[in-house]
Amino acid sequence: MHSISLARLCYINKQSSAQKLVLFIQIALTVSLFLDFFSKMYYNNIIFRYPYFTKERKATSKLSYKFSKISPEITKLAKRSINNYKINPELYTQYDVKRGLRDINGNGVVAGLTNISTIKVLDMGDGMPNHGDGKLYYRGIDVEDIVEGFIKEKRFGYEETVYLLLFGTMPSENELSEFRQLLADYRALPPTFTRDVIMKAPSDNMMNTLAKSVLALYSYDDKANDISIPNVLRQCIELITLFPLLAVYGYNAYKYSSEGGSLFIHDPRPELSIAENLLYMLRPDKSFTELEARILDLALVLHAEHGGGNNSTFTVHVVSSSGTDTYSAISAALGSLKGPKHGGANVKVAMMFDDMKQHVEDWTNEDDVREYLRKLLHKEAFDKAGLIYGMGHAVYSQSDPRAKVFKSFVEKLSSEKGRHEEFALYSLVERLAPEVIAEERRIYKGVCANVDFYSGFVYRMLGIPDELFTPIFAVSRIAGWSAHRIEELINSNKIIRPAYKAISPMREYTDMENRID
Predict the structure, then answer these.
(1) pTM for the full model?
(2) Whole-number Å distance between alpha carbons of 298 and 494
(3) Which of 20, 62, 189, 474 is the most buried (most CB within 10 A)?
(4) Which of 246, 233, 241, 247 is nearest to 326 (CA)?
(5) Three-state SS letters, 450-473
(6) Cα–Cα distance between 349 and 338 in angstroms, integer?
(7) What integer best gives the mean pLDDT of the chain?
(8) pLDDT beneath 50, residues of the chain
(9) How far is CA 104 from the centre of its chain?
(10) How far apart are CA 203 and CA 210, in angstroms?
(11) Contact at 8 Å (CB) between 166 and 177?
(12) Residues carrying an active site annotation
């Protein structure tokens, strides 16, 4: 680092103009280097590792920092809130209100029309609704046929699935090549974005990190508020190709912040698919097998879209109908997907099986597995929520087509990874759980394994950390969200505004002096 003596500074006025210029340049260089050194220490969290700074931060925190504290006053007010928010469940039946916008059979209330995807339950001819096998269609094409096509022709399928969802047709070889190049061209974050946004205040929840990054991208977009279709399409394509970077870099920043060690940021490679790049950027040695990449690609295809009525996609429709920007609409969808009742289910499935493997000694003993499943339903095992995670779906009853397609490839991966016994346990639970649920619960339709049932197991075998399970769901579903946002902007000229029936009794205003604590 350059140093300037005090004596030299004292005699600055005696120097010639040229000497003064040189001296000021030296001073500016010194200040610049000092600031650069300080900023690097700050970003690497070096300053706060020294005892003096650590003690000072802790002392200040104890005295004044109350952001996360629930005070006794808040607890008291919360009790009052709970008492004044409760609604008698019988009133929903009395006023014919469809809670969750679904009827007693689980059928959704029709709130819109879409060209993007179709969810069907085949009619078995037995007169029972929602009793057949499930089918999923992207732009009218059976997703099972889409998967069979790109698997047979030995290519990655997510990019062409994105093309199909966005533009309504399967791409030709030339169109797919041009689209892949377009995705590669947009696969670059703004300069300093990783340092200024992702590395600052890293969160232990990667969905929050994703949402923060998406909202921050608004500030880098000169046309952020332009909702013309060409501009929205450009924004959506950028987000589709950048989501893997935001998720992986966010996770790496969090791990470095919480655990220290080495921080690695791998730039994506333009010739790799989105699935390949995700594994390439995530792993320190950048290596992966072809089977690993193809199964992750399959997972992305199967999670890419699932109708306009699922919670996060409906959120995109609702928020987009207000005329807001793309970044706000997609961050709202991320907030929806984060919820354990929606995108967070795959983590719960993996954790449930962790608990099962600890408490069931013989994984092949059907009686022991049945007993554990009963304990789950009776709130005596795992998180005591009374649920068998990964079982059941709002629409599908006999089979979820995504889980059905996924299962055969999961078995191949489990063999490669030497985890066939675990796969056998998953298969056993998939078979026994519907029987146990039927014995223990009054149900109106059948129960089947959904796509979340196997996805967590797959991600574990791929070495993907639990924190990234739901973000990978988002990496996939951004394709469907983008298509639905464009569809809403093209076809809607009204803001979505459903009605809520007020049931609170009318009361007279009370003057302050007559109010009682």
Answers:
(1) 0.85
(2) 37
(3) 474
(4) 233
(5) CCHHHHHHHHHHCCCCHHHHHHHH
(6) 15
(7) 88
(8) 1-12, 14, 42-63
(9) 29
(10) 10
(11) no
(12) 393, 452
